[in-house]
Amino acid sequence: MPQIFSKKANTYSRVSLFCLLALPAGAIMAGMAVTRGPAQTNVGMPLDQPVPFSHKHHVEELGIDCRYCHASVETSAKAGVPTTETCMSCHAHIWTNSPLLEPVRKSYETGVPIKWQKINKVPEFVYFDHSIHIARGINCNTCHGPIQDMHITWKGQYFFMRWCLECHREPEKYLYVNPRDPDKDPRQKAFDLYSLNKYGEDLTPIEWRNLEGSDLKFSKDQIAEGEKLVEKWGVKVKQLTDCWTCHR
Amino acid sequence: MAPKDPLQETFIEGSGNTYLSLQDSVGNLTLDQKRHNRFAWWFPFVLAFGMLQVMMLALTMLVFVGTGIWGINNPVGWGFAIINFVWWIGIGHAGTLISAILLLFRQQWRNSINRFAEAMTIFAVMCAGMFPLLHTGRPWVAYWLMPIGPNNLGMWPQFRSPLVWDVFAVTTYLTVSALFWFIGMIPDFATLRDKAKTFVPRFAFGMLSMGWRGASRHWHRYEQAYLILAGLSTPLVLSVHSIVSLDFAVSIMPGWHATIFPPYFVAGAVYAGFAMVLTLAIPVRKWYSLEHIITLKHIEWMAKIMLATGLFVFYGYICEAFFAFYSGNPFEKAMMINRMSGPYWWSYAALIFCNGLAPQILWSKKIRQNLPVLMVVCFIVSIGMWLERFVIVATTLHRDFLPSSWGMYFGTIWDWGLYLGTMGLFTFLMWLFLRFLPIINIFEVKELFYKMTGRHGAPKPAAAVAGAPEKVTADE
Q: What interface predicted TM-score (ipTM) does this complex get?
């Protein structure tokens, strides 16, 4: 019988030894990349909605307060998706014949709610509470991204637990006051960045960061400021990372 | 005859053995596939394959429906999953003990059984490893068990939990065992490559032997690597099952919170492991005419180890009962009384019979050499070791500190399906191993033969051979 392995076999064996390590490593890295990418997290992906509702138009251009539609955000765990009646409170008077609003009118007539697609989801074992975050002045955009720029709404953040913990471990980096009116109730300032920006106020870096929903560097001064707020508002930092804080 | 050092005793039975005949009696099992076209191979294989399908079914149900299909509920939240996990991990321990500890102690007789026992270790750990992954009900996030650096949870596993130590212990154990097994086979792969007459085995074993030429430098490195791995495996024999026992002992449950748990678990593991090695070795040596390599002496010595570890285990049971009453702790006492006379009294009674009493007949040399009886004892011990974990888990949990939550625990059909299924997986892999890999360490048997007879195969009078001459069945 002839030789089974030619000289090439040496190379093949070395390459396969390399691949034995490299392929699983590559597969794991690819898996990690996919898990973190928009295909899996939906971040930055506008979803088709029955009505092409534009946050940019209503929030940025018209200046409607978030709480007009998401009425329960200050008092309850859930911010609430507006009822058809809320839409109709304006649209019974304006754009009454717009074909885009046909599903809203139909819903109003039949009493069947519009089937909005849910953008921001947390798993069912996570008990997120909007009201406490608003009460400590966490701006909507911190979690929901630059909502004032969204024609069709997309998900602003990936909602990994790692991301939640970034703030729960170091809330001092995220708490801030409106420097123009430091004594203002933190709850109130969670909603005012759009208008401040729109009417030409100079925003501080942390305000910019929150408005854009982006990660920026944290300055020492701001962290020191945040630590004071942690003290002042009685945020119990140790409790923030207890399992039961979010998982009950 | 000069007195022999029993620890240095070497034996291959029968007259008329040569290096070639010894090599062929093992190597032919792989190279001559026709030898497996027989009932003794196909029947267990098909049966095991069927049981494997039961496992697949149970797994599918589990993944679709969740752990609700199992019998676990309050108050018994730990059920078959941990019982089976501990049982399988324990069975693996004999392989490591034989291959590592007996190697370091220069017990030459291990050479005939180590390969086989190592394969058993690996397959048993594979069966065991399945349960921790499945018992969470979410096997797709099993990687949460590992401390993987950049993860999306922003969390490490709970390093203070013995369940995490388990993950490290078992993965280390599997890795080292698999390496040990593979490296030990490389010289044999080369033998098979050289002896193979057709392309496929030549190619396959050629790849697996990784260019082994039998050069003295190869042997030098081989021996070094093998010894290092033996050194790594040795503490694993003790550490893995110690850590498994800490899953229980670290808690404060009555009946679990005892310092004797680690040594008593390790002894139980070796006990169960040797029972399983014997269960497999007795029929296989018969079916495949390996009685001259795995001799009656091997069988007998394994039975002796079983008896010794069985006594450790029995001592453990006695200590548990003693601690419960001597401690004066009312909960411990209540647990022990409940274990002995409560609704699960039958499991405790069966446990004492299987693990404590039945093996005592191994004191008799006649019984140790009576293969059918030995086989039955091994089965009883295997059942007993399973019962031991059942007793530990169920009797402690089913009556906890709060009488209003007391209840009973029994496995459902899916519990049993998964358990039997893993036996199917184990047997399936074992039987593939029998057919496609060298089941006995060929070169070490030849080395034994050299020590017995010298270079030319002429018997050395002093070392010549235990046991009566037997019909040589090597060449078929």
A: 0.76
